[in-house]
Design brief:
Elements (H helix, E strand, L loop, with lengths): L2 H11 L9 E3 L7 E2 L5 E11 L10 H19 L2 E11 L4 H17 L3 E9 L3 E11 L14 E5 L4 H8 L8 H12 L5 H7 L5 E4 L4 H12 L2 E5 L7 H9 L5 H7 L6 E5 L4 H10 L4 E8 L4 E4 L20
The structure holds adenosine-5'-diphosphate (ADP) and magnesium ion.
C-alpha cells in the first residue's frame, strides 16, 4: 500500500480518542511509547484471522472487527489478565471505504468496551487478513498457566460448548423449523464473548486455564500435556445451549458428539482448580452471571478419557482443529 494511501487510511479509520494515561505516544511514530505498571507482569498475545480460513467470506466487516479482538481478548482471559493495549496489522485486498467505515466503528466500540487502546499497527495490501496483538496486565505469579494442573484437581467450563461449530454447519441450512437456532449459533460463531472480567477475579481460586478455540479435547489436551497429567471428563455433564439441544432433535446427520468435544471457536474457558476452591469459584461465577459447569477431574493416568453416563469410554474420532491437517 502506498504511503499516502496508508497515511490517510490510518488517519480516517484508526486514529481513535485516547483511552488510557499509560500511553505516552500512540499511533503516528515509529513505535508507541508505553508506561508499564511496576507491580504487574505483562501478558502478550497475537492472533491472525485469515478470510476463508478463520471466518467465512460472507462475514460482515463488523463481525470480523469484533472477532479479531475477541479471540485475543479470550487469550488474555485465559491467563486472567486485564486488557490494556492493542496493535492491528491489517491486510486488505483494496481500499473499500464503506467496508473500512464499518470495520473501524465496530473495532472502536469493542476496544472501548474492554478498556483497550489501539497504539499502532501496520497496513498492507493482499488477501484479507486481520492480526491483533494485545497486551494485558496480571499480578505477578497469579496468571492461570497451562502447566499448573495437578491430579485430583477439578475441571470446569464456562458457558456452553459446540454452538459456534454448529453455527458454521448451519450457514447454508435454511429449513430449520425454528429460525432462532441458526441465529443463536451464528451469534456464538461471530460474536463470542471472551470471559475477561470473570477470569480476572477467578485467578484467586483457579491456577490453570485455557480458552477453547480448537475444541475441548484439543485444548484440555494442551493443559494435560503441559502439566504431565491425564483426565476424565463426563460427556453427559457437558453444557450445551438450548438451541444446540433443539437442533440435535430437528436435524439429523450431524455428528453432535464431535461438535461438542472437538468443535472450535466457542472461546469459553476450560478451568482447573483444586476442590477446596470449588464453592468460591461457583459463588463468583454466580455473582457475575457466568454459567460454570463441573465436567471432570484431573488424574495421573496420562490419558484423556471421555465417559458416558454408564462410565463407559466414548471413542474420539478427531481431537480438534489442527492447522494444515484439515479433515
Ligand atoms: P512504519 O513505516 O514505521 O512501519 P507505518 O507507515 O507502517 O510506519 O505506520 C505509521 C504509523 O501508523 C505507525 O505508528 C503505525 O503503528 C500506525 N499504523 C499503521 N497501520 C495501522 C493500523 N492498521 N492500525 C493502527 N495503527 C496503524
Ligand atoms: Mg508499517
Amino acid at each position: 500500500m502506498t504511503a499516502t494511501t496508508e497515511f490517510g487510511l490510518i488517519q480516517n479509520y484508526f486514529s481513535f480518542d485516547t483511552q488510557r494515561d499509560d500511553v505516552v505516544l500512540g499511533i503516528g511514530d515509529d513505535c508507541a511509547l508505553l508506561k508499564s505498571p511496576t507491580a504487574k507482569q505483562l501478558a502478550v498475545t497475537v492472533d491472525t484471522l485469515v478470510c476463508g480460513v478463520h471466518f467465512p467470506e460472507i462475514t460482515s466487516a463488523e463481525d470480523i472487527a469484533y472477532k479479531s479482538l475477541a479471540v485475543s481478548l479470550s487469550d488474555l482471559a485465559a491467563m486472567g489478565a486485564e486488557p490494556a493495549w492493542a496493535t492491528l496489522a491489517l491486510t486488505l485486498p483494496d481500499v473499500n471505504e464503506p467496508w473500512l467505515e464499518k470495520f473501524s466503528l465496530s473495532f472502536k466500540e469493542t476496544l472501548k468496551m474492554y478498556g483497550l487502546q489501539l497504539i499502532g499497527g501496520d497496513t498492507t495490501q493482499g488477501p484479507l487478513s486481520v492480526t491483533v496483538q494485545l497486551t494485558g496486565f496480571v499480578d505477578a505469579d497469579k496468571a492461570m498457566r497451562r502447566d499448573a494442573a495437578r491430579p485430583g484437581d477439578r475441571i470446569y467450563v464456562t458457558g456452553t460448548l459446540g454452538g459456534a461449530a454448529l453455527g458454521l454447519k448451519l450457514l447454508n441450512v435454511d429449513d430449520l423449523p425454528d429460525p432462532m437456532i441458526k441465529q443463536s449459533c451464528l451469534r456464538k460463531l461471530n460474536r463470542p464473548v471472551p470471559r475477561v472480567v470473570f477470569a480476572q477475579k477467578a485467578v484467586e481460586y483457579c491456577c490453570c486455564a485455557i480458552d477453547i478455540s480448537d475444541g475441548l479435547i484439543a485444548d484440555l489436551g494442551h493443559i494435560l500435556e503441559a502439566s504431565a497429567c491425564g483426565a476424565k471428563i463426563y460427556y453427559d455433564q457437558l453444557p450445551v445451549s438450548t438451541e444446540f439441544a433443539k437442533c440435535s432433535v430437528y436435524l439429523n446427520g450431524l455428528d453432535y458428539t464431535h461438535l461438542l468435544l472437538a468443535g472450535g471457536d466457542d472461546y469459553e474457558l476450560c478451568m482447573v482448580a483444586s476442590g477446596e476452591n470449588e464453592q468460591s469459584l461457583f459463588s463468583l461465577a454466580e455473582s457475575m452471571d457466568v454459567l460454570l459447569t463441573h465436567i471432570g477431574e484431573v488424574d495421573a493416568s496420562g490419558n484423556l478419557s471421555v465417559l458416558n453416563s454408564n462410565g463407559e469410554l466414548i471413542e474420539l474420532k478427531h481431537s480438534g482443529y489442527e492447522h494444515f491437517t484439515h479433515e
